[in-house]
Design a protein that fits this description.
This protein has 156 residues and is an alpha+beta fold. The protein has a domain at 2-37 and 59-103 and 138-150: hypothetical protein PF0899 fold, CATH 3.30.2320. Helices cover 22% and strands 31% of the residues. It contains 3 helices and 7 strands; from the N terminus they run H-E-H-E-H-E-E-E-E-E. The protein has helices at 2-19, 41-45, 76-87, and strands at 27-33, 59-69, 96-102, 104-108, 113-117, 134-137, 141-150. A hairpin with a 4-residue loop joins strand 4 (104-108) and strand 5. The chain starts with a helix and ends in a 6-residue tail after the last strand.
Length: 156
């Protein structure tokens, strides 16, 4: 299941961001592209995941925001289910998965512009009708933001 590999990678990326506590910002923004392992979930599951980490929990992830391109091949409901399963016992356990759907964007040579396609079956510029010069965006699976609640450690 392709979505399980992506969910496991999401959990690992979020955990790595939390482990890098030097920034101590309440939200991580940027855009980290996810690349699922073509060998599937079994290979991704053997990666160093964020499970059973010791020490006090100082942060709780409220929400993980991802962008799915229209041509990513990722089924949103399967990703939601996989994220819930992969996140059990980790920093994202119980976090919301917020999914934004990204458009298909092509490069149009005659217009010298990037154009958003309304019809995923037609790779033609919607303005001039020319064949697309290339795909600019549309295949991405991207971690775009984290919502993190900071917990102060008890010092008594």
């Amino acid at each position: 299941m392709h979505e399980l590999s992506i969910a496991i990678e999401l959990v690992d990326l979020v955990t790595a961001a939390l482990d890098d506590a030097a920034s101590r910002t309440p939200a991580v923004r940027g855009g980290t592209a996810l690349t699922s392992d073509p060998r599937g979930a079994a290979a991704a599951a053997n990666a160093p995941a964020a499970r059973d980490r010791g020490g006090p929990k100082r942060s709780r992830v409220e929400a993980v925001h991802v962008r799915l391109g229209a041509l990513s091949g990722v089924a949103e409901e399967a990703l939601r289910f996989s994220f819930e399963v992969a996140g059990r016992g980790t920093a994202v356990d119980g976090a919301r998965l917020v999914v934004e759907h990204g458009p298909i964007v092509i490069a149009c040579g005659p217009c010298h512009a990037e154009r958003v396609l309304d019809d995923p079956c037609s790779f033609r510029c919607p303005v001039c009708g020319a064949a697309a010069g290339g795909l600019v965006r549309g295949r991405e699976v991207e971690l775009t933001a984290l919502e993190v609640e900071e917990h102060a450690a008890a010092h008594r």
